[in-house]
Design brief:
This protein is an alpha+beta fold. It folds into two domains: 213 residues, Cytochrome Bc1 Complex, Chain A, domain 1 (2-Layer Sandwich); 210 residues, Cytochrome Bc1 Complex, Chain A, domain 1 (2-Layer Sandwich). The protein contains 18 helices and twelve strands. It is globular.
Length: 473
C-alpha cells in the first residue's frame, strides 16, 4: 500500500502554477545538432536527444544544488537530502519504487557533487513514463519522514567514517580545505561529522523546499522516443509545478593565492601519498550582461588545460560514470612510474561552475622518499612550461581525449548524463561543440596555461605520511 504520513510531518505539498487548468503551457524550444531544448514557463529546462539504435531511454533530473550551496553548520546536507528522496512520497514507498523499476527491467540511481544533485532511470522505452512520473512526484512531494531522517543519519555518518579509512580521502580533504579560504568548494560533499550529527529534519526539509523546484531543475532524456511526444509529456507533468520565488545565490569569490601552501597528514599504513592541487579556471566565462538563453562561451583556458592534462596524465572522458584510458604513455607516467619512483600517478581537470582545482596525485614506491617524488613531479611540470609540448604529442593527446569523450558518451545513459551535466555549468551547445573546441587547441595555448596555473604560488601541496615514514617528516 502507498505510504501515508500526517500533513504536519510532510509539510505542505508544492502547489501547481496559478491559472486555469485548461491553459496551455507553452515552452520556448530551440534545436541544435539533433538536440532539442525547451524552457517551460515555470523555468524548468528540458533537453532531449532522440536516438533509435536500441529500444532504451534514459531520463535524468538535475538540480543546481551541491556542496557549493552549503555553509558551516549544514555541510553535507545536499548529499543527505539526495538520500532522503529515495525514501518515498505519499504515493510511493521506497520499496514500491525499487520494485516498480526493477520489474520493468530498469536501473536507477542518484549522485551529489559540489555543483549538483541528480537522479536517473534507464529503462525500456515503452516503460519510461514510469520514470517521468516518479521524478515529478519526488520533486514536489517527498516526505522526508522524521523516523527515516534518524535512521539515515547513521547511514550518512557511516559513509563518512568509511571514507575516512582511505588515506587518499583524508589527504584530499585537508588539501581542499587549505586551498579554499572563502569559497564553499573548501569542504567535502560528505560534510563535517559535527554537522551531520547536529542537523535536524527541519534543516533537511528546508533545503529540499529551497532547491528542489522546477526553476532550479533540468530534465535530460536520451534514447528511443518521439521528441514531440516527449515534450508534451514533460510539459504536462512538470509544467504545472510551482517555482520557488528565488534560489539563494552563491556570491563567494576565492581570492588569488599568493604563495605555496603545504599540509601534512599522518596516519596508519606504510604507504605515503602525494597531492598537488592548483587553482584552475571555471569551465565557462560568465557574462552577467548577456541576454537570457544566450550560449555561454567556454573559458579560454579550459580546453588548453584539458589538452595539457592529456599530455601529462593521459586522456580522460570527464564522465562520472567511468571510462578513461591507460596513462602509461603519458609524460608523468614515463618520468615517475617507469623510473621506479612512483607506483602510480594521475591527475584531472573537472568542469565546474566556479574556479576549482587541477590536481596531481602520486603514490611513491616503497622505500622511495616522498620529497624525491615531489621534486621529480615539479621537474616535469617545469619542463612543459619551458619547452612546451611537440605537435606530435599534442595531436596524440587530442586524438585520445576525443576518443575517450566519444566512448564515454555512446550509450543512452551517458548521452542523457552529458545533456544534463553540461547545462549545470554551461549549456547544451558546450556539449555539441566540445570536440571542435578541443581540436582548436594549439601548442602556444598549452604552454600559456602551463605557465599561468602550474606555479609554486598557486599550489597547495599535500603529503600523507604512513606510520613507518612519519618520523622522517
Amino acid at each position: 500500500m502507498p505510504k501515508t504520513t500526517p500533513t504536519h510531518l510532510a509539510g505542505p505539498a508544492r502547489k501547481t502554477a496559478a491559472g486555469p487548468a485548461s491553459r496551455k503551457l507553452r515552452a520556448r524550444v530551440t534545436r541544435l545538432d539533433g538536440i532539442t531544448k525547451a524552457v517551460l514557463p515555470n523555468g524548468m529546462t528540458l533537453v532531449m536527444r532522440e536516438m533509435h539504435a536500441a529500444p532504451v531511454t534514459s531520463f535524468w533530473v538535475w538540480f543546481r544544488v551541491g556542496s557549493r550551496n552549503e555553509h558551516l553548520g549544514i555541510t553535507g546536507i545536499s548529499h543527505w537530502v539526495e538520500h532522503m528522496l529515495f525514501k518515498g512520497t505519499p504515493s510511493y514507498t521506497e520499496s514500491d519504487l525499487d520494485r516498480m523499476i526493477s520489474r520493468e527491467g530498469g536501473a536507477r540511481n542518484g549522485m551529489t557533487w559540489i555543483d549538483w544533485t541528480t537522479y536517473y532511470e534507464t529503462m525500456p522505452s515503452n516503460k519510461i513514463d514510469l520514470a517521468l512520473r516518479i521524478e515529478a512526484d519526488r520533486m514536489a512531494n517527498s516526505l522526508i519522514d522524521p523516523q527515516e531522517v534518524l535512521s539515515e543519519r547513521t547511514v550518512i555518518i557511516n559513509e563518512r567514517q568509511g571514507s575516512e579509512n582511505s588515506p587518499g580521502f583524508r589527504l584530499s580533504e585537508e588539501v581542499q580545505a587549505a586551498a579554499f579560504r572563502v569559497h564553499p568548494y573548501g569542504h567535502e560533499v560528505l560534510g563535517h561529522t559535527c554537522d551531520l550529527q547536529a542537523m535536524t529534519r527541519a534543516d533537511l526539509y528546508t533545503h529540499y523546499r529551497t532547491y528542489y523546484a522546477p526553476n532550479n531543475a533540468i530534465a535530460a532524456v536520451a534514447g528511443d522516443f518521439d521528441t514531440t511526444e516527449m515534450l508534451e509529456k514533460l510539459t504536462k507533468l512538470y509544467g504545472k509545478l510551482k517555482p520557488v520565488a528565488a534560489i539563494p545565490a552563491v556570491n563567494a569569490v576565492e581570492p588569488p593565492q599568493r604563495g605555496e601552501r603545504r599540509v601534512t597528514v599522518k596516519g596508519e599504513g606504510n604507504t605515503d601519498y602525494l597531492l598537488l592541487a592548483f587553482h584552475a579556471p571555471p569551465t565557462v566565462q560568465r557574462n552577467p550582461k548577456a541576454r537570457p538563453g544566450a550560449p555561454t562561451p567556454a573559458h579560454e583556458d579550459f580546453f588548453p588545460l584539458l589538452a595539457l592534462d592529456s599530455v601529462l596524465c593521459g586522456a580522460s572522458g570527464l564522465s562520472f560514470l567511468g571510462g578513461g584510458s591507460s596513462n602509461r604513455s603519458s609524460r608523468l607516467s614515463k618520468a615517475l612510474v617507469d623510473s621506479g619512483l612512483a607506483a602510480d600517478i594521475g591527475g584531472g581537470v573537472t568542469p565546474t561552475i566556479d574556479p576549482y582545482l587541477y590536481s596531481f596525485f602520486a603514490t611513491p614506491q616503497q622505500g622511495k622518499d616522498i620529497n624525491e617524488v615531489e621534486r621529480a613531479l615539479w621537474n616535469e611540470l617545469e619542463r612543459v612550461q619551458q619547452d612546451s609540448v611537440t605537435q606530435a604529442e599534442l595531436d596524440k593527446a587530442i586524438k585520445q581525449t576525443r576518443a575517450q569523450f566519444a566512448f564515454g558518451s555512446e550509450s543512452v545513459t551517458n548521452q542523457a548524463f552529458w545533456l544534463g551535466y553540461c547545462e549545470i555549468f554551461a549549456d547544451y551547445s558546450w556539449f555539441a561543440s566540445y570536440l571542435d573546441k578541443l581540436s582548436a587547441v594549439s601548442i602556444d595555448d598549452v604552454k600559456r596555461v602551463a605557465n599561468r596555473y602550474l606555479t609554486r604560488d598557486n599550489v597547495t601541496v599535500g603529503h600523507y605520511r604512513g606510520q613507518a615514514n612519519a618520523e622522517q617528516s
